[in-house]
Design a protein that fits this description.
The complex is a heterotrimer of chains A (about 675), B (about 200) and C (about 190). Chain B is an alpha/beta fold. Chain B is about 50% helix and about 20% strand. Chain B has two domains: about 50 residues; about 140 residues, Glutaredoxin, CATH 3.40.30. Chain B has seven helices and eight strands, in the order ααββββαβαβαββαα. In chain B, strands 1-8-7-4-5-6 form a six-stranded mixed sheet, covered by helices on one side. A two-stranded antiparallel ribbon of chain B has the order 2-3. The longest helix of chain B is centred in the N-terminal third of the chain and has 38 residues. Chain C is mainly alpha-helical and about 190 residues long. The chains are: A alpha+beta (about 675), B alpha/beta (about 200), C mainly alpha (about 190).
């Protein structure tokens, strides 16, 4: 009964959404206040409806309503409530509903926050956001109904995919969806700017924060996904350039490029067309990514079971492609740049180079992801494009990007004089060279030396910027150093928060270099009491224990770890295997870790014999991995600093919105 | 709008040229993206089609057995062919191996050929498997999975029953462990003259 | 003339990227070296196996790392737990014991399973496109960008009345402009 209501709610929401699109568009065109108001109301009501539908599905999951096909396929009685809750995004229909819920929540927040601002843009923003919602509601109603019935009431469900029964798998999709879906908001503003012909910097200024927040979630989501892969998949790595990983990475690349290029539009009034194209591309890649992971056209460990949503996505992709291009080409004359670039040694030029590289990496990644598909289609030959390809193609580009990250802040807007050059570059270059030489003493291979030298260079520029900023503030205000840093963040968070984000990226870069070039591994079979040595660690196998959990048996191997340098015991490492009752042929792995700032000792339990008398392990030393996660936290903090409303800006925004209110209506 | 001023001073011809090149670029941009989506669509269709395994006329293939003999499906016209895809790492394959061999021994003089194609496997392990079940019908590796792809198999074991005219009559996904089922399947692909003989 | 000077970093960058990537044969030794450097640290294990017939799992994995499981998607052979992969590793061990080198073993697997056991498209036929196109696109973008910038730099700035070193007024960057000025004064 209640589940029929759920289906009915989705149907209602779909109809309302279509209505809201029309009122939003016409309201914006005719400047009709009542129509505009109704588009706002639709946004709120749809958000409420979709949320209710989600709650109903949650209710079904938590009460073991196995008469629902979705619950039957993705849950079971013995599953802990925690995972029953997260099973919402464990399968196709549920995760589409979740997508839709986040989107409508975003839409409602955007509409509410801007209800008195951007009078000319908002009706179109509502319409654009509702269009995306409409697409997903159509999917939910016609192609992937989360409330579909089995026809009888099965006694128990099939269980949730064991790989998804992991802490990070609860958080990671939520973050990823918040990031992915959020990118629809800046795109909606771009569409609104095009439709309303208000192509000045207004939409760009508004959209910056609405891009930063999803960007932060997307970054965090990608990193959590890496963390999950690192802990669960047990191959010693965190990123495999798998098609599904790439699908989340692509909008990140174009979104990051967008965040940088809107700065130049704000400063110099150029790149207007490019910015609109970039944010459209980001949105397009979000939809494309959702399509590829759900239609079965690409095979991947992460992809969803095949279903018939594919054709719907294709039609929508064609619609957003042609609709957008038509609109863009029509408005092209209005998108002329106001100024130009004065010098190759200006910050604008560095930003352009940054966009060039981001676009290049995005293209290479897109191309590599889809190449096997096209190759099989056109030549019939099956090939795989995995890490070796992406590392070779993207590796050097990432290094250049890293370098640029250090160079750009040192260049002045418009032009950098020779004396400024000397003043700005001396310290960072010295730092970079020093670290490069230091690394050269230990390992003489090209990439790590260059990479770490560039990392040092970037860190040095950031430090230099901060030191100068602090000194400048102290001379004017006389506050102490800490207060001065806080002041920099508060008064100019965009810039100094941005540097913190860069610092986070450098940390991640260092971890990647450490793992890529200095990883060690060892496969051993140990009888109880035997030991293996790797790097400066010795691991002594101490037997196995097993533990019965609600829906699985866990097998833990105990390894005592000793640091050979200090001769001290550093702890117990317990790699683990879980065998689930519902899927005994799919044992999952939980790696054992000993984490230090210098390296992770990472142990995978491959198998065991005679009740654990002997066991086989793969042991990895992964240098500097911890910095990847620390870098992620730093990145999030930096984004928050950068997104925090600026005190004077807030005032000016209010002033501006008042001006609009009086001027428009 | 200072740029508008400079723009006006440019000759009309140059402006038209510019407009034309812009239009060409727009067309190129649109076509590339539409082409991309068209490829996606083609791929989607291909994916949905590959759901279906081969049927009708059996796709031709040639392979070299572990004993070095070269066998081509086309040379076997006039005989019923039981084409079994297997692998040594495949547990269910073990369930049907004895029955397959027993039937081969019984039927090899009745115009029926058994062929085993070894899917994504290693020669030493495969030979060990063949020895373990004492398999004597022709077996060989399916190099680069050429035949497997043409027959659209999704896993192992899968067994195709091909009649003397080279038409796929039946397909069994998963092991065949039931003798009666096997007999019924074999009856569908017996050469006519012979089946009458054995029937009479 | 002097503009060429500014273009140099761009060209250099382009050339470097091109060299580093278009010649995967060149890039690989650098990686292989790094790999060798890391594996030399666990010589303790590898030493005793130099006497051929007992090949250690580590030596096998050294080869398996560069192959991909043909039955799964994007799983490296050294980390794959399927029985089929186990057998593939056994095969590698046997081949190593017979004195095959890495290239021979890889070629054997390509012959058996096709190029999908490699993590990257082989440099032949249609697959060239996989490697070339990203760089063609990058180069085309670079040329376009460079020419646009050249044109922009060549045409005199329209707002010539504004003094050269001053940035444009903008609400959000007002403070940073002040800061910049302060820096000039004090720094």
């Amino acid at each position: 009964m209640i589940f029929d209501i759920g289906h009915l709610i989705l149907l209602t929401a779909m109809a309302l959404t279509a209505f809201g699109i029309v009122t939003g568009y016409l309201g914006g065109r005719w400047r009709n206040t009542r129509l505009i108001q109704s588009s706002f109301n639709v946004v709120y009501v749809v958000a409420a409806l979709v949320f209710t539908a989600t709650v109903i599905l949650w209710y079904g999951l938590l009460t073991d309503a196995f008469q629902l096909s979705y619950v039957w396929n993705h849950s079971e009685r013995a599953l802990s409530p925690f995972y029953k809750f997260s099973a919402l995004w464990g399968g196709q229909a549920g995760s589409l509903l979740f997508w839709c819920m986040i989107l409508s929540a975003y839409s409602a927040v955007v509409a509410y926050v801007n209800r008195d601002r951007h009078r000319a843009l908002m009706p179109y923003v509502n319409a654009a956001l509702l269009t995306t919602s409409l697409f997903f509601l159509v999917l939910l109603v016609f192609a992937a109904d989360p409330f579909k019935r089995v026809g009888f009431v099965p006694p128990d469900g099939q269980g949730l995919n064991p790989l998804l029964q992991n802490f990070w798998m609860i958080l990671h999709p939520v973050m990823l969806y918040l990031g992915y879906v959020g990118m629809a908001v800046p795109f909606a503003f771009a569409v609104a700017a095009l439709l309303s012909k208000r192509l000045d910097n207004e939409w760009v200024r508004t959209v910056r924060r609405w891009t930063l927040i999803p960007w932060m979630f997307l970054s965090a989501g990608i990193l959590m996904g890496s963390q999950w892969a690192y802990m669960e998949l047990g191959w010693g790595g965190y990123w495999a350039w798998d098609p599904v990983e790439n699908a989340s990475f692509l909008p990140w690349l174009t979104g990051t490029a967008f965040l940088h290029s809107i700065i130049i539009q704000e400063q110099r009034g150029i790149l207007k067309t490019w910015n609109i194209v970039l944010i459209w591309l980001t949105y397009f890649l979000v939809i494309l990514g959702t399509f590829t992971t759900r239609s079965g056209i690409i095979e991947s460990v992460h992809s969803f079971a095949r279903s018939d949503v594919g054709p719907y996505f294709l039609v929508y992709l064609v619609l957003i492609l042609l609709g957008f291009l038509w609109l863009l080409f029509d408005r092209l004359p209005l998108l002329r740049g106001e100024h130009s670039i004065d010098s190759f040694t200006s910050r604008e030029a560095a930003f352009l180079a940054n966009n060039w590289l981001f676009a290049g990496i995005a293209f290479a990644t897109l191309w590599g992801t889809f190449f096997p598909m096209f190759s099989e289609l056109l030549t019939g030959q099956r090939i795989s494009v995995a890490a070796p390809f992406f590392n070779q193609v993207n590796g050097p580009l990432f290094l250049l990007l890293l370098l640029l990250m250090g160079v750009a802040p040192l260049l002045g807007w418009r032009h950098t004089s020779l004396s400024a050059f000397r003043k700005q570059f001396t310290f960072p270059i010295l730092a970079g060279v020093a670290v490069g030489l230091l690394v050269f003493l230990f390992a003489r291979s090209f990439y790590p030396i260059i990479g770490l030298a560039i990392c040092a260079f970037v860190v040095a520029t950031i430090v230099q910027e901060y030191v100068r900023g602090v000194i400048a503030r102290r001379t004017t205000t006389g506050e102490n150093a800490l207060a001065a840093v806080a002041g920099l963040w508060r008064r100019n968070g965009r810039r100094y928060g941005g540097y913190i984000v860069h610092l986070g990226i450098v940390m991640i870069g260092v971890a990647v270099i450490g793992n890529e070039f200095y990883q060690q591994s060892l496969s051993v079979t140990l009888a109880r009491g035997e030991s293996a040595q790797i790097g400066r660690y010795e691991l002594v196998y101490d037997g196995m224990i097993s533990e019965r959990k609600s829906n699985r048996i866990e097998y833990h191997a105990l390894l005592n770890a000793y640091n050979l340098d200090s001769g001290r015991r550093v702890g117990v490492i317990t790699p683990q295997r879980n065998i689930y009752d519902k899927t005994p042929d799919m044992p999952t792995s939980e790696v054992g870790l000993h984490v230090t700032p210098f390296e992770d000792v990472y142990v995978v339990l491959n198998g065991w014999e005679s009740g654990g008398a002997s066991a086989t392990f793969t042991i990895y030393i992964n240098p500097l991995t911890l910095w990847m996660w620390i870098g992620g936290v730093v990145l999030v903090l930096g984004t928050l600093i950068a997104a925090w409303p600026h005190p004077t800006q807030r005032r000016s925004e209010v002033v501006r919105s008042l001006a609009y209110a009086t001027g428009d209506d | 709008m200072a740029e508008g001023v400079t723009e006006r001073t440019v000759s009309a011809e140059a402006q038209q040229m510019h407009r034309r090149s812009v239009r060409i670029w727009q067309a190129v941009f649109t076509l590339v993206l539409v082409g991309f989506i068209a490829l996606l669509a083609a791929r989607l269709i291909q994916t949905n089609q590959s759901e279906h395994r081969a049927s009708g006329q059996a796709p031709p293939f040639t392979f070299t057995t572990f004993d070095g003999e070269t066998i081509s499906l086309e040379d076997l016209r006039g005989k019923g062919v039981v084409l079994n895809f297997w692998a040594s790492w495949c547990a269910p394959c073990r369930d049907e191996a004895p029955l397959l061999e027993a039937m081969w021994r019984r039927e090899k003089d009745n115009g029926i050929v058994f062929i085993g194609l070894d899917y994504l496997d290693q020669e030493p392990a495969a030979r060990a498997y063949l020895a373990e079940f004492n398999i004597t019908y022709p077996n060989g590796p399916d190099l680069q999975s050429a035949a497997a792809r043409r027959y659209g198999i999704k896993g192992v074991p899968e067994t195709f029953f091909i009649d003397p005219d080279g038409v796929i009559q039946e397909l069994v996904v998963g092991p065949i462990v039931n003798q009666a089922q096997m007999e019924a399947l074999l009856d569908k692909i017996r050469p006519h003259s012979l089946s009458q003989e054995s029937g009479g | 003339m002097h503009r060429i000077k500014y273009a140099l970093p761009f060209l250099l960058v382009g050339a470097l990227a091109f060299l580093a990537v278009l010649s995967p044969g060149n890039a690989e030794p650098a990686m292989a070296q790094a790999g060798a450097a890391s594996s030399s640290t666990d010589t303790r294990v590898t030493q005793n196996s130099a006497t051929a017939n007992s090949v250690t799992p580590n030596e096998v994995n050294e080869v398996a790392k560069e192959l991909w499981c043909p039955l799964c998607n994007g799983v490296r052979l050294d980390a794959c737990e399927l029985k089929a992969c186990e057998q593939m590793r056994d095969m590698i061990a046997e081949q190593l014991a017979e004195g095959w080198n890495k290239e021979q073993i890889k070629n054997y697997f390509i012959e058996q399973y096709g190029p999908q056991v490699l993590g990257a498209p082989p440099l032949e036929g249609f697959n060239w496109l996989a490697w070339i196109l990203p760089f063609v696109a990058l180069a085309a973008g670079g040329v376009f960008l460079w020419r646009t910038m050249q044109r922009m730099v060549a045409s005199p700035p329209q707002e010539a009345t504004i003094p050269k070193e001053e940035t444009l007024p903008s609400v959000t960057d007002a403070y940073s402009r002040r800061l910049e000025e302060e820096l000039k004064r004090y720094g």
